[in-house]
Amino acid sequence: MRKSEKEYGATYTATTTPCQKYDQQAVELSHKYLACEAELLSHLITMRKKRYFVSLNYAGIFDYCERRLHLSRAQAYYFKSVAEKSDEVPEIKQAVMTGELTLSQARRIVPVINKTNHRQWIQKAKELPQRELEREVTALNPQAHIREKLKWVAKELSELRVSLGPRAAANLTALQNILSQKRQKAASMGDVVAWSLEVARGKFDPIARAKRSVGRKPETGKKNCAQRPQRHANMAALSSLDPGFCPGRQSTSRRLAPRVPIPAAVKHAVVLRDQLRCTFVAADGTRCRQQRWIHVHHIKEWSRGGRNEIGNLRLLCRTHHALEHSRPDPQTIAAAEREGVPRGRVD
Ligand SMILES: [Zn+2]
Ligand SMILES: [Zn+2]
Hints:
By secondary structure, the chain is mainly alpha-helical. The chain is built from 15 helices and 6 strands.
């Protein structure tokens, strides 16, 4: 055996036992692991600031960590929460970068750390054992460590963990009584949740609503959905498909035709066609997976004569909608150049 060898930066002598050698190597690897974790956090924060995830067709850090980096959902969540908090409290990022805190310690204080108390909480995160730290955080923010969870416990059975405020808890008890009465059989909390979900989805899911509307005769003598949004429960969901969100190009000086709401039947058709999912397709051919924060986008803008027609509308998530409107528009640029407007003023 050689008198000494250097691996992972550790020095071994002839008297080093295999146990000590493995221990030293583990310590070295752990240092590298934590340094790498800090570097990855910094990397993700930069990508987030520069909005690279959008161009790469990821909805954000969580999506990117999970799908691209193959991190677990828990790890993806830790990176996301610490990266987001770093906007408000850059000291938390610095603490991870300098090795004062691990990512795991940093994410525990995210619910309570702010600009004024960061020194105190970084110190606590460094010194206190995990349980004690969690107890202190929870004392200040009771919601901090309640993690919602849906876990499969059998082939067709999952366990749901959520936290409820007093009103929601009272509603749950009231609905348990109502459902038991209705079925003439004691209803469990699970029965109430399953039943409530069915009812709510049937009422608010735009796809379910759109399917029901297909083939339905238009109501005569009554105002249509778009004209009485308050009365239609599903319009609350559909109105979140906001056709008016068109950043960037609204400041045109041209006189615009007054915008009219998209008729409900047209929205239903677009929702069904696009399956309530963002239609942005990245350069590699993959479609955005986002199914929330969905907007209706006019392919040909309203200000350019585009109308509320199915072929002129597509669903985009909030991020890709903003991206769509941030692209230079050839027509605007050409018109502006003809009028001698500098490019910098064209939005
Ligand atoms: Zn748009
Ligand atoms: Zn999208």
